[in-house]
From TrEMBL:
It is an enzyme of class 2 (transferase). Keywords: Acyltransferase, Biotin biosynthesis, Pyridoxal phosphate, Transferase. Its cofactor is pyridoxal 5'-phosphate. Its EC number is 2.3.1.47. Belongs to the class-II pyridoxal-phosphate-dependent aminotransferase family. BioF subfamily. This is 8-amino-7-oxononanoate synthase. HAMAP family: BioF_aminotrans_2.
Length: 404
């Protein structure tokens, strides 16, 4: 069989399951309102939770960074790609996490995917067992597959199962790996309980805070601040392309762990450092996150979350036959679980026709039968924006109920 025939057959199978994905073209910057495929849409899908990607001060800092540093970094960090701008970012983040991680040090990566790959494959050697939460992000799952360590999965938020697995383990090093905020459900990992288990079993806790950084905690430092955690067992991965509004990622951990990543993480050593202009702009982003603008946007996020959840619960009450459900989320990720792939795509299409972009999420990203609208809120959404979404969903629900 030729490769092209082979792939065509696979593509047909994807289409037959209503699983075909399509790219949409944005014609301007990310914000609650964006021109997509030539149409202005009100967006409930970005992970730019604080609206910083569209903040003029960030664009200005990026331009200033480009004027100072030019374009790319030109080399990997250990050759000549590591600039004073990179160092200012990692120094600042080390200060942010010093209250949570004794002897905290920070190392930067170009993306969160790369940071997760570095942590899990570098620390997950043949002496290690990885305890991986069932709903972990794809990058953590891929990283565990690449690691030499034994990998044991535990069911979502199931502390009893994790305890049993830790008890049974004879591995010299134990690494519990979890998302802090689950990206398709919006719920929080029970980090205090996970950390207590780590203490009890002499394990280490890798926390991927992609959706908590900037959003949670009084100063936006994320889930560690939210829970008030403090332990040398914490290995934090934060990403900077979501609430920070730019790009990149970091690992904050005990200095020895970070030194080992610097010496051994192949995707740190053999990959070009991020453009220094981005690092320069990240300093502005951090100042906004912990300053009055960040505080105000986090407060607005909480208000919009409450408004949205109240509205969705009323809608579910009015249309019980649709079987829609909310998740136990207290974050800007507020999914509406619809069930079937075709149903969720029809719903997303109806919203798009009404001028709203909310992505339908299907298996394998989520479990079969739990296809959902992944609604995400932004700190710059207004009450009117959320009302517009609720009104459009109300119309779509009435239509789907008639068809059912
Ligand atoms: C987005 C995301 C990542 C990947 O981060 P990028 O910087 O986008 O590569 C990792 N983990 C989680 C939980 C994410 O949601």
């Amino acid at each position: 069989m030729s490769l092209l025939d082979h792939l065509s057959a696979k593509l047909s199978a994807i289409a037959a399951q209503s699983l075909t994905r399509t790219l949409r073209r944005a014609d301007d910057g990310t914000a609650p309102r964006q021109n997509i495929n030539g149409r202005p849409l009100l967006m409930f899908c970005s992970n730019d939770y604080l609206g910083l990607a569209a903040e003029p001060a960030i664009a200005e800092a990026l331009a200033e960074g480009a004027r100072t540093w030019g374009g790319g970094s030109g080399a990997s960090p250990l050759v000549s790609g590591h600039s004073a701008a990179h160092e200012a970012v990692t120094d600042m983040l080390a200060r942010w996490y010093a209250p949570h991680i004794p002897q905290a040090r920070t190392i930067g990566f170009c993306t969160g995917y790369m940071a997760n790959l570095a942590v899990v494959t570098t620390l997950g050697d043949e002496h290690t067992e990885i305890f991986s939460e069932q709903l972990n992000h794809a990058s953590l799952i891929d990283a565990a597959r690449l690691a030499k360590a034994k990998v044991t999965r535990f069911p979502h938020a199931d502390l009893t199962a994790l305890r049993a697995a830790l008890t049974a383990s004879t591995a010299r090093v134990k690494l519990i790996v979890t998302d802090a905020v689950f990206s398709m459900d919006g719920d929080l990992a029970p980090l205090p309980a996970l950390l207590a288990l780590a203490d009890e079993f002499d394990a280490w806790l890798v926390v991927d805070d992609a959706h908590g950084f900037g959003v949670l905690g009084e100063r936006g430092r994320g889930t560690l601040e939210h829970f008030g955690l403090h332990s040398e067992r914490l290995i934090l991965v934060g990403t900077l392309g979501k609430a920070a509004g730019l790009a990149g990622a970091f690992v904050a951990a005990h200095a020895t762990i970070v030194e080992y990543l610097l010496q051994s993480a192949r995707n740190f050593i053999f990959s070009t450092a991020s453009p220094p202009a981005i690092e320069h702009a990240l300093l502005t982003s951090f100042a906004l996150i912990e300053g009055p603008l960040g505080t105000a946007r986090r407060a607005n996020l909480v208000a919009r979350q409450t408004q949205l959840r109240d509205g969705l619960l009323a809608l579910i009450d009015q249309h019980p036959r649709l079987g829609w459900q909310l998740t136990d989320s207290s974050t800007p990720i507020q999914p509406l679980i619809v069930g079937g792939n075709a149903e969720v795509m029809a719903l997303a299409a109806a919203l798009e026709a009404a001028g709203l972009r909310v992505p339908g999420i299907r298996p394998p990203t989520v479990a079969a039968g739990t296809a959902r609208l992944r609604i995400t809120l932004c700190g710059t959404h207004t009450a009117t924006d959320v009302d517009a979404l609720l009104t459009a969903l109300e119309r779509a629900a009435a239509t789907q109920e008639q068809a059912a």
